[in-house]
Amino acid sequence: MGVRLMVVDDHRLLAEALASALKLRGHRVLAAAAPVAGAAELVVSRAPEVCLLGTATPAEPGVFDPVVRIKRERPQVAVVVLGPVPSPRGIAAAFAAGASGYVRHDERIEGVERAMVKARSGEAAVAPQLLQGAFAELLNPAAQPDDEGQRLLQMLTPREVEVLVRVADGEDTRLIAAGMGIAPSTARTHVQRVLMKLGVGSRLEAAALAARTGLLDRAIPPAG
């Protein structure tokens, strides 16, 4: 018997392509929606049996907030996440939010279909190889893979890291510009980008965050 479902993805073309493929296989697709952030309301109003929810960033904070709302207001809807090969944190975040399954977004349509059916019946739908990979990473982690300082460092370009180090050393815009051989306006732009990426409102906050998370310990200091 076909599954009554909705497909939600930030990439509308992907959502529509998957919806079309599932229709051809006898499933009833109520809607193919984008973006994910605004789809919870639609899922709640249409109440499918299964919601396929696509994400490119399963470990990002808040990415599964729509799942939380769906499960709170329509607990009978089974949510299956379609995403990249996840980290253990990605899988954990999906299930903590209330998802019933996690399937790689490059999975064959038969695999997606099996996950939908299992989720509808109340079973957890996760490919064994994904669980094996997650457990392997948990048992043999890379050096501090989920460390906050490392995560923040990866958000910044090498030049922005140098700017942050100089900010933490108390340099003003003029000194940053002189030390890096750039115009003061360019230095100001770099500082603003650093503040925006770190989610802080001042240089002092940026320096404090960098020190607290150990980001400065990993940064290569600017050449003197």
From TrEMBL:
InterPro entries: CheY-like_superfamily, Sig_transdc_resp-reg_C-effctor, Sig_transdc_resp-reg_receiver, Tscrpt_reg_LuxR_C. The keyword Lipid metabolism does not apply. Residues 4-120 form the Response regulatory domain. The keyword Transcription regulation applies. It comes from the Bacteria. Keywords: DNA-binding, Transcription, Transcription regulation. Transmembrane segments: none annotated. Residues 149-214 form the HTH luxR-type domain. It holds the Pfam family Response_reg. PANTHER family: DNA-BINDING TRANSCRIPTIONAL ACTIVATOR DEVR_DOSR. This is LuxR C-terminal-related transcriptional regulator. It comes from Streptomyces crystallinus. The lineage of its organism: Bacteria, Bacillati, Actinomycetota, Actinomycetes, Kitasatosporales.
